[in-house]
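Human: Cast an eye over this sequence-structure pair and say how the chain folds.
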Amino acid sequence: MLVLALSGCKDFLDTNTNPNLPLDVPPSVLLTGVQATTGFAVGNDLGRVTGLLAQHMAGIANQPRTYDAYQLRGNYDNQWNNELYGGALINAQQIINRTQESSPVYAGYAKILKAYNFALLTDLWGDVPYSEALQGNLAAPISQPRFDKQEDIYKGNAGMGIQSLFDLVREGLADLDKPSVLRPGADDLIHKGSSAASIIKWKKFGNTLLLKLANTVSKKEPALAAAVIREVLAKGPAAYITDNADDAEVPFGTAVGNQNPFFAYNYVNRPDDQMLSQRFLDTLNLRYKDPRLPRFFTTTPTPVQPVAATPTTPAVVGVNTTGVVTPFGTFTGYDNGSTGGAPVRASRSRYGAYVVGTSGEVPMRLITNFQRAFILAEAVLTLPGLTVTGETAQSLFQAGIRASMLKTGLSAGDVAAYFTANPRLVTLDASRSLEYQRNQIITQKWIAWTGNSYEAYNDFRRTGYRKLALVTNPSSESPTSIPVRLFYPNSEISANPKIPNPQPNTNVKVWWAQ
């Protein structure tokens, strides 16, 4: 795992100089680091907590168990300081600083990745350092940057010198058409090369990222969302992702230290901390009989014997003690927030081959074809006057389901058979309300995003779908509602006096979800 930090990061890259860090790292090394760190950040602790809050997974021990009960305070310093600000973001900024004039293709890639990482930050925390961040190595450094409002981060604020995320992506896309002395080659993990085809795929990445950002603000700013989506659609379908082969993914390997972070955590480092959510299992089994289930999660023996509860622990609650038998095998989940004993390791359904591979080699999926289809399906359904040439909300909805199923390794024949056998599940019910149909779209998107719960968590907070129940035993930090943001990390609370005061609790919606 390559993570590069070119200056101290505790106070957002303050002025201290570390003689052990190189002063001149080539952009090729930086680009590899930015991409690897981005994928790692999405699947590491932030991937775990969003997986629990979106109820793909359930916590059964240690930190995931506390997260599952909504005890979130005092965490994520490493993610904030090292993976994001001190990792992917500062290195993306270094690429931009060093290559903008002579090799702008590098700068374009870095701007697209910078926008993705800042979206991740502001989506989870709300107001964050943005316009004044990443400046610790300047002659007049800003070691305590202001916290920009999330609205300004997404929409821009010229009076305050804040560039919108949309314009940051647009700048990156424009850079890809400029002559460059240097071009990425093997250092580009995501699209692997410097050919014209690779640059075209990066353009698709950037344009589909614009669709994602528009979708995120569509509840709060429907006119802005519609304008951005029309801007992308006007470029034609060749400009954005319409094929699974063009998905933006960060690859991982089988060697220790380079494995998919979900595999490293769940199979190597902490194999007894979390397992399949019984709630997710019930959805896929009881209602959907979904053929993706055995690809998302492992099967288990039956019958299943839970570990005995300790004398201070209530009797097992919400643990399936016999396993759920489906047409695809036996699966065992655990109820989110349960205080009961978990099944023995061999009898737990955990992330399966689609999410982690056999040895950690599966990529982290950032921007995908199924995501694009579901975004456009929702947009056509809900944004007045928005159309997609040759498509309907229904055709796009089915395209999203089909793309997700094919991506898990199901054959076209398998998908066709599922559609034939389950017409109600793959058809938007036009006799029902718009919100009912939106729920259909987002529920399928929630299923498809197994392995990147950050996106599913965004949709839940924005739309209220998939409808999720409060965990069984929520903590006093959030006793009546599922948290809708993260607490600021302790290190930033103590280091930066410009942090919002009062600091918002986890029940305070971020701007775009209000």
Notes: The chain has a mean pLDDT of 91. The first strand starts at residue 57 and ends at 59. The radius of gyration is 22 Å.
